[in-house]
Structure formats: C-alpha cells, structure tokens
Design brief:
By secondary structure, this protein is mostly helical. The protein is built from eleven helices and two strands. The chain folds into two domains: 80 residues; 189 residues, Vanadium-containing Chloroperoxidase, domain 1, CATH 1.20.144.
C-alpha cells in the first residue's frame, strides 16, 4: 500500500466513526458511512488490480484515483454541516474587517474592473483542475514515481482543513448580509462559478480553505521537484488565494490559515522524502 492510500483509508474511516458519535440525523450518518465504504473499496480495488490487469495500468490508475476521492471526502464533511453558528461568522467577519484595515483596503469602496475580475474568476475556476494538472505535470516531467509524495502532501493539507471544518460552521461571505464585499464587475465566469457552487458545494466554507491549502501544497511539491513548473503552479495558487477572498468565496482568515497549513505540511514531510 502507498502512504497516500493509507492516509485516505484512515481519514475516511475516522469520518465514518465520527458520524456515529456526532449528533447527526441517521440519514446523514448512513451517507457518511456509505461514502467511506465506497472510497475504501475503490482504494483496495485499485491496490489489487495488478493481479488482474497489467502492472503499469494498475499503477497509473492508483496515481489518479486520489483526485476523485478528494470530492468524496469533501461531501462527507458536508454531512456534518447542519446550520451556521452566527458567533463564528461574526468572528470571521470581524477578523476580515481588521485585516483589511491593517492592509489599508476598503472592500466596499474598491472596484474590481472587468479584466481583473475575469482573471480572478478564472483563477478560482482553476481550483477544480489544478490538482489533477499537478499529477499531469509530474508525468510530463518524467517524475511519475513522485506521485505518492505529491499526494501525501496534498492530502494531508486538504484533510487537515476538512478535519477542522465541522468545528467552524459558517456560510461563505458572499451570502451574508452586511458583509463588506468587493465591487466586482459581473462576467460569465463568475456566473459559472456561482452555478457550480450552488449545485456541487456543501453550501458552507471549509476552514481553513481546502482549495487554497491543496493548491498551495501542490505548488510547493512541484517547486521542489521541478522549479520552473512549480513557479507557475505557485502563481496560480496565490491567484486562487486572492480570488477566494475578493470573490467572497472565503474569509481572509480561511485563506491565511490555509497557506499556513500547506507550508507546515510541506515542511513536515520533507524528512520523509
């Protein structure tokens, strides 16, 4: 078994156990358990695929399966969200207010023009393909053997955010009344992002931001293995971080803590590889 596969199995199992100890409706507990069962079954199936399929094919499948299972973990965490806590949202909004004051920015009086708005919305849209693109970059660079290392860093950073999320139940800033949002010129990409979130998100924030943590973790790994490619991914990750705040998809605190989580996980795993 690969290290990344063990990390996934342990995380899915812990969530399933936590669902039955947490005051959740029975249907939510069953969904969390079903998600965990299907995910673990998929991991074991790919692990033993080499007995029935060519070893190279099996190995390649195992390189890519974690990308799909990230969504399973995300939906599992969503089952723990029942309603937001107003006090948590108020503290996050207050932190944002203090943060923007410290950097001398007034969101409500800052107009994000059409070109900048389009760029930031495109950057946020990249949160979905960026992690698989990191695996593709390893393939192109002839470093497929580092896939397990890549996934260990990305998964640990992402799952840390997921693990904290149930303790910080809050809605995203964009849906709150009274939150000082940036004035953003409307565009079709922003509309697309909103459409995707309405239909596929858990309708709550992940704290810290899993998108920012995973993209930053991926960038740091690539920066170490293939610096030129890593710089491109780092620029994309930082663009995503800015876009999540400006677009109202996350609080500034979500993003700052996500960056910290990604860096700590990356540094903490250096000794292992």
């Amino acid at each position: 078994m690969r290290v990344a596969e063990w990390i996934q199995i342990v995380f899915f199992s812990i969530l399933a156990l936590a669902a039955w100890r947490h005051p959740l409706a029975r249907r939510r507990r069953l969904r969390v358990t079903a998600f965990a069962t299907l995910a673990i079954a998929a991991i074991l199936a790919t692990r033993f695929m080499s007995y029935f399929a060519p070893p190279l094919f099996s190995s390649v499948v195992r390189d890519w399966v974690p990308a799909a299972l990230l969504l399973v973990a995300y939906w599992q965490i969503g089952e723990f969200f029942t309603e937001p806590e107003q006090s948590v949202q108020a503290r996050l909004a207050a932190f944002d207010l203090s943060f923007f004051r410290a950097v001398h920015i007034q969101p409500a009086k800052t107009l994000i023009g059409p070109l900048r708005a389009l760029y930031l919305e495109l950057a946020y849209l990249m949160v979905y393909p960026l992690i698989p693109l990191g695996v593709a970059a390893l393939y192109i660079a002839g470093m497929r053997h580092n896939s397990d290392y890549y996934w260990v860093v990305v998964l640990l950073a992402t799952y840390t955010c997921f693990a904290v999320t149930p303790f910080v139940p809050a809605l995203p800033p964009r849906v709150l009344t009274g939150y000082d949002m940036f004035e953003i010129s409307p565009n079709r990409v922003r509309a697309l992002n909103r459409w995707v979130l309405r239909r596929a998100s858990i309708q709550a924030i992940t704290f810290p931001s899993a998108h920012v943590a995973s993209s930053t973790a991926a960038a740091l790994v690539l920066l170490r293995l293939e610096p030129r490619v890593g710089l491109i991914f780092l620029w994309m990750a930082l663009s995503i971080a800015v876009a999540t705040v400006v677009g109202g998809y996350h609080y500034a605190a979500d993003v700052l803590f996500a960056l910290l989580v990604a860096v700590l996980v990356f540094v903490g795993t250096l000794w292992f590889w």
